[in-house]
Automatic annotation (TrEMBL):
InterPro entries xref list: Sc_DH/Rdtase_CS (IPR020904), SDR_fam (IPR002347)
EC number: 1.5.1.33
Keywords annotated in UniProt: Oxidoreductase
GO molecular function: pteridine reductase activity
Class of this enzyme: oxidoreductase
Protein name: Pteridine reductase
PANTHER family referenced in this protein's UniProt entry, alphabetically: OXIDOREDUCTASE, SHORT-CHAIN DEHYDROGENASE/REDUCTASE FAMILY (AFU_ORTHOLOGUE AFUA_5G02870), SHORT-CHAIN DEHYDROGENASE_REDUCTASE FAMILY PROTEIN
Amino acid sequence: MNTPVALVTGAAQRLGAEICRTLHARGYNIIIHYRSSQVPAEALRDELNAQRDASAVILCADMNSVLDVQSLAKQSLAQWQRLDVLVNNASGFYPTALESAVEKDWDALFNSNLKGPFFLSQAVAPALKETTGCIVNLVDIYAQKPLQGFPIYSMAKAGVAMMTQSLALELGPDVRVNGVSPGAILWPVEETEYSIQEKQDVNHRVPLRRQGEASDIAKTVVFLVADAPYITGQIISVDGGRTVSM
């Protein structure tokens, strides 16, 4: 089977789903990972398979569990007997004020953002070497300068940035490893909702004076995957210039 294969974690909705659509449009078969969002994962799979038959599958795994992560790797490789791309997109995100943070918060945020992606990368590295493939990690602009009220998340994402550089050294020359660091793209949900005024304030601090779109991230991921054969160990900020004004 010569069709390249991409595994995208946290792929049922939002950025992950857009990354899947964009890679699929470039000819990749897609493995859609999800943890609890089964219904949207199935809908995305059906959408992609309607465009190209038998080109997408879904797999469930908890990125907090190394056993689940290792099982995800095995199941992924069993689908088409190859893997060309791993996109580590799955991520936990919620506030952890210093005075109220507990060990459970530390474990949840470090496991989903850093531990799971590291051990998944380890598990699929031999397959990626066979295809001279690549890894793209979703980082965050707050890996560089922390978001107040989110110290554990910010530290975890800083770890993802270092993991990107470290794995580029460990896996070269056969496997390239890069990162994409989103700025204000999609607003958070649930307990981290922003008010209209807060959103306006954030956009005002962006030199381009507007929020980005999921497609901005997906296109950058695809660039690193398909059009950047001499780039590794790099993290591209897709933030409208936010990092120069933070």
